[in-house]
Specification:
Blueprint (H helix, E strand, L loop, with lengths): L1 E12 L2 E12 L3 E5 L6 H10 L7 E3 L2 E2 L5 H5 L2 E4 L11 H6 L14 H13 L15 H14 L4 E5 L7 H17 L3 E5 L3 H7 L2 E6 L2 E6 L7 H8 L8 E2 L4 E2 L3
Parallel strand pairs: 3-8, 3-9, 6-7, 7-8
Antiparallel strand pairs: 1-2, 1-4, 4-5, 9-10, 11-12
Helix pairs in contact: 4-5
Length: about 260
C-alpha cells in the first residue's frame, strides 16, 4: 500500500537544478535505502520529505498532499533522524528521547505515565536504557545515534526517515544499527527510508534500493539488481569488472 508518494518533484537553487523530475512511491512497511555519490541530491530529497521546502503539493502522504498536514498530524506519520546531531544543553539521554513525545503534549512538564513508558520501551529496543541518566554530551557517537533513533521511535510515527545514520560509526556499530533498524521494520511494521553510503549493507537489509545520480533517480530496484557493473560504473565513476561482483555473496570488491 502506498504510504508516501512523490510526483514530478523539481528543485533548483539560483537556477541550478538540484532535483530533477523525481517520481517515487514508498510502500508502507518496506525498508528503503537511498544510495548515490556525494552531491547527487540525496539529503536535499530527504529534506523535502520531512520539511516540504515549499513544494509540498508534489508530495502525498497517505494520498493527501503534504500541504494539508498540520505539524502535529505529520509528526504522527513521520519521524526524522538528521545527519548532524548536536546538543548544547546538558540533557540526560532520557530527556532527549522524551522529546519524541512533544507532539502529543505542549511541554515536557506535562508528560504522563504513558509517555514515560513509551520512552522506556524505545530505549530498551535501541539498547540505550542504561544511558538514561547520562548526559547526551558525554556519550560516544554510536551511542548518540542510538539515542536519537530511540527518540524517533518514541514518536510512534509510522515511518522513520534517516539521513546517513551510519556516518562516523565503525563497522561493528554500522551492522548493529542496520540490524536494529531491520528489527524495528519487521517487528513494529515501520516504514524505513534511509540514506546509506554502504552498498553492501543496503543490499543485505533493504527491500528496495533507490539510486540517485546528478539530482535524478537513476534506478529503483530490488537489492540483487543493484549489482550491475554498468550502473555502478556510471553512477560512481568506477571501473568494475565482472570479477569484482559476487552475486552469491552480495558483495562488491572495490579493491
Amino acid at each position: 500500500m502506498s504510504f508516501l508518494e512523490i510526483k514530478n518533484l523539481n528543485y533548483e537553487v539560483r537556477e541550478k537544478k538540484i532535483l530533477k523530475n523525481i517520481n517515487v512511491d514508498f510502500q508502507s512497511g518496506k525498508f528503503y535505502s537511498i544510495i548515490g555519490p556525494n552531491g547527487s541530491g540525496k539529503t536535499t530529497f530527504i529534506k523535502h520529505l520531512v520539511k516540504g521546502m515549499g513544494l509540498k503539493n508534489n508530495i502525498y502522504l497517505d494520498g493527501k498532499s503534504l500541504s494539508g498536514y498540520k505539524a502535529k498530524d505529520f509528526a504522527g506519520k513521520i519521524s526524522y533522524v538528521p545527519q548532524i546531531i548536536s546538543y548544547e544543553i546538558d540533557f540526560s539521554c532520557f530527556d532527549v528521547v522524551m522529546m519524541g513525545r512533544n507532539y502529543t503534549q505542549n511541554s515536557l512538564f506535562r508528560m504522563d505515565n504513558k509517555d514515560f513508558k513509551k520512552v522506556e520501551e524505545a530505549m530498551k529496543v535501541t539498547d540505550t536504557y542504561f544511558l538514561k541518566d547520562v548526559s547526551i554530551k558525554d556519550i560516544s557517537g554510536g551511542e548518540r545515534g542510538r539515542v536519537i533513533l530511540a527518540r524517533a521511535l518514541c514518536q510512534e510515527a509510522e515511518c522513520i526517515i534517516l539521513d546517513e545514520p551510519l556516518a562516523h560509526l565503525d563497522i561493528n556499530h554500522q551492522i548493529s544499527m542496520m540490524r536494529m533498524l531491520k528489527e524495528i521494520n519487521k517487528r513494529l511494521n515501520k516504514t524505513i527510508i534511509m540514506v546509506n553510503h554502504d552498498i553492501n549493507l543496503a543490499i543485505k537489509y533493504s527491500d528496495k534500493i533507490i539510486v540517485f545520480n546528478k539530482g535524478e533517480i537513476e534506478k529503483e530496484c530490488n537489492p540483487n539488481e543493484i549489482l550491475d557493473k554498468e550502473l555502478l560504473n556510471n553512477v560512481y565513476k568506477l571501473n568494475l569488472k565482472d570479477e569484482n561482483i559476487n552475486l552469491e555473496q552480495f558483495f562488491i570488491n572495490f579493491y
